[in-house]
Amino acid sequence: MNEITFFQRFESDIVAGRKTITLRDASESHFTPGQQLRVGRYEDDVYFCTIEVVSVTPVALDELTDEHARQENMTLPQLKEVIAEIYPGLNELYAIVFTLVSKA
Ligand SMILES: CC(=O)Nc1ccn([C@@H]2O[C@H](CO)[C@@H](O)[C@H]2O)c(=O)n1
């Protein structure tokens, strides 16, 4: 059973260690530092790696910086566009910082 999912298009960045945060809504803000999570692909729920949660921090959409974007392996405009597609109209996000523990 997977505990968090990512869109398949981010799998390669995550397993390569290029993507080290994810921005989620309140429904996924309950993870705690030190927790290890089995990660699956959103589209088919296939397990692809395990991550460890480093921190979970509330961040407003308009507080996002180039540093958040760098940790997503994107530019800030790209990141804001992705968030607008996934979470239209949402301003209250949670930055989940993670490290890669193991790959499938
Ligand atoms: C069901 C569901 O919400 N799945 C999500 C939600 C978010 N994200 C990624 O987190 C970052 C900021 O949102 C971007 O890289 C997003 O693509 C994701 O991969 N899968």
TrEMBL record:
Q: What does this protein do?
A: Catalyzes the hydrolysis of N(4)-acetylcytidine (ac4C).
Extract the GO molecular function terms from the UniProt entry.
Answer: hydrolase activity, acting on carbon-nitrogen (but not peptide) bonds, in linear amidines
What name appears for this protein in its UniProt entry? N(4)-acetylcytidine amidohydrolase
Active-site annotation: 19 (proton acceptor), 22 (nucleophile), 72 (proton donor)
Q: What's in the keyword line of the UniProt record?
A: Hydrolase
Might you report a single GO cellular component term?
Answer: cytosol
Q: Which family does it belong to?
A: Belongs to the N(4)-acetylcytidine amidohydrolase family.
Taking the record's annotation, the residue ranges forming a coiled coil are none
Instruction: Please give the Pfam families that the UniProt record associates with this protein.
Output: ASCH
SMART domains attached here?
ASCH (SM01022)
Q: Where are the transmembrane segments?
A: none
EC number, as in UniProt? 3.5.1.135
Cross-referenced CDD domains: ASCH_yqfb_like (cd06552)
